[in-house]
Amino acid sequence: MRIDLHCHSTASDGTDSPAELVRNAAAAGLDVVALTDHDTTRGYGEAIGALPEGLTLVTGAELSCRVDGVSMHLLAYLFDPEEPALLAERELVRDDRVPRAKGMVAKLNALGVPVTWEQVERIAAGGSVGRPHVASALVELGVVPTVSDAFTEEWLADGGRAFVEKHETDPFEAIRLVKAAGGVCVFAHPAAAKRGRTVPEFRIAEMAEAGLDGVEVDHMDHDADARDRLRGLAKELGLLVTGSSDYHGSRKTVALGAFTTDPEVYGEITRRATGAFPVPGTGGA
């Protein structure tokens, strides 16, 4: 059983539509795929409508959080998408993405880069706009060769020359909100140091006490040492260990199913969730 619990669509910063994502997941030999767009659930309906027979969809979202000045992402699975408090917080974060992206465009212009908001808006194509869309604009302009190369201190990394902060949820509040909506919480790529500063282990321990369910260990941004360290920490704290591709379509080089989650861990996630249930495919359009 092959399970990929972290994927993005055009509802945020992926390049596959939700329908294309689930079809590509089935073609890649996955049995379970999670749709975890940034701070939005807008892709659910399309993904469910196109869900191929034999593939199960886990609904979720990747929530933007910040603690001690460090940005982090929290994967929330199988929560009630209509629960009012969590919905209001997601909308607050999502609504702040547009002025933030416009602020990055302004900073890039001041640095002599002729990127425009219209260019970024076109690339986002109606999705929840984020730094990868700005990064893609830099690739189009030939400023950097790849999206990943834009996430440096020279450009868009945390604290970089064109970085602009946005509203991000305190992770302890996010955990509380997700739990109240019947969901399950996993800390996404916690050791991805190349993205910027990482959250110290004592904070992860505090999050575990507050209800964090797991940590994403097997991820393209974690080397072997980081994975070993995180596995040890998860065992010490009693946290679930997941693995995921963090697939973004053509915006990243990683393939669907490049990293996967153990079926027993997936089973425990579904047992803990009360806000929603995995959706089995019935051969969608």
Instruction: Return the average pLDDT rounded to an integer.
Output: 95
Count of DSSP-assigned helices: 11
Secondary-structure element order, N to C: EHEHEEHHHHHHEHEHEHE
Largest sheet: 8 strands, mixed
Structural class: alpha/beta
What's the N-to-C terminus distance? 24 Å
| Percent of residues in β-strands | 15-25%
Q: Whole-number radius of gyration?
A: 18 Å
**Poorly predicted regions:** none
Structure overview:
38% of the residues lie in helices and 16% in strands. With 285 residues, the protein is an alpha/beta fold. Strands 1, 2, 3, 4, 5, 6, 7 and 8 form an 8-stranded mixed beta sheet that branches. Helix 2 (44-49) links the parallel strand 2 (32-35) and strand 3. Helix 5 (117-124) crosses helix 6 (131-140).
Write the layout of secondary structure elements.
Blueprint: E1 3-7, H1 18-27, E2 32-35, H2 44-49, E3 56-67, E4 70-77, H3 84-95, H4 97-110, H5 117-124, H6 131-140, H7 147-150, H8 171-180, E5 184-188, H9 201-210, E6 214-218, H10 224-237, E7 240-243, H11 263-272, E8 279-280
Parallel strand pairs: 1-2, 2-3, 5-6, 6-7
Antiparallel strand pairs: 3-4, 3-8, 4-5
Helix pairs in contact: 5-6
